[in-house]
Amino acid sequence: ESPRMPSPPRVIxxxxxxxxxxxxxxxxxxxxxxxxxxxxxxxQFHDSLPICTARVREDEMEGVRHHLVxxxxxxxxxxxxxxxxxxxxxxxxxxxxxxxxxxVGGSNYYAQALVSDSLMDVRDREEEECISDKSFIDDIGPNxxxxxxxxxxxxxxxxSTAYARLAEVDPESAQRLHPNDIxxxxxxxxxxxxxxxxxxxxxxxxxxxxxxxxxxxxxxxxTIFIALKCDSKxxxxxxxxxxxxxxxxxxxxxxxxxxxxxxxxxPDGARGDVRQAxxxxxxxxxxxxxxxxxxxxxxDSELASMRDEAIExxxxxxxxxxxxxxxxxxxxxxxxGWPVRFVDVSDSLSKFCSERAAFKDxxxxxxxxxxxxxxxxxxxxxxxxxxxxxxxxxxxxxxxGKTLRGEIEWRAHLNGRRHRKASANxxxxxxxxxxxxxxxxxxx
Length: 444
Known about the structure:
Layout: E1 10-15, H1 22-33, E2 35-39, H2 58-61, E3 66-67, H3 80-96, E4 100-104, H4 108-115, H5 133-137, H6 159-169, H7 171-176, H8 182-195, H9 199-210, E5 222-229, H10 232-248, H11 251-262, H12 284-291, H13 300-336, E6 340-344, H14 346-350, H15 356-376, E7 394-397, E8 402-405, H16 407-414, H17 417-434, H18 439-442
Helix pairs in contact: 1-15, 3-4, 6-8, 10-13, 11-12, 12-13
């Protein structure tokens, strides 16, 4: 047989919930395809707290070159725009030399911002966010550029008048917004006044135009999204084991040393601070007590109790984060319509804690092999986008004078203390206005 021609370089983006094995898969794909790994986890950019941020260790890299890991000094600000510029140049260099690139990170926010410019017209955000019209509207001008002072012509319009006009020119957009969300109502009207198009049509076109476009298409390489998914119960077990392993490997010493050197709490006005990592805030009561021990001795039993509670809180919050990430990733694929290929790692990870030897075989056969197949497959596999324009139920609470959108928001309002109190007051006013029958008279 004739020798197989080498495959062209690719840009492979691996996303998924924390603890699902993204870093492990990135290394194995890089070794199999011959490429580099680019970190897209915002907290792992920092050179501080490598254990707390679950940064990939040198021995775990297995000789594969990793970029943007521990590259930001304490106090430096490294936002998504800086990441896109640095990572983009690395991708172009690797592809130019015939090497593939594997981008791996916790949130899909940084990874998506690298691949597409669809997020680069919005205000910088460190928080993982679902993609929605709100993401486009914050700072985007009607023609796709940054806002200018001349575009703020609707500032003097009151909320009710602005919303009524939006409902007239674009009922679909009005139905999505709350009448009191005056900033976005005004921006929608600015888009309509400047372009002559309904904002809802503009957003639909933006999603259609950008959902399959990668900035690296011009390099002649394919961009592939691989998303790891896992059963929540399996992932909970993995995350508990990981937190306990972090504690055994020196997490507490790392946190104490950092707190003594830089302070327990973030400085005022700090942006992108590494203390945002889950596994730091949960330890703050312990760290504050530990740092103050020199001047105010703390009972060992109290400190031990704080330590145990910090461990449990870290496990609890990490599990909660993984569920949010998994849910947002599904929304990302369905709503934004990008060609994401899902790989289920549940069966393999279920063997991680109990059958380590079986785990390695299962991981390679069911995860690595499947991911390599997806990288070689030429056809675009899309996830059903569903009905993205479904109507949102609108409810009005007479007792509170509030308008709620969606069943979840409405049920939460009905169960809230403020609504129950307002309803009780309304019933009292009604009894005072119409009177109440005497119990005995009521039985006649």
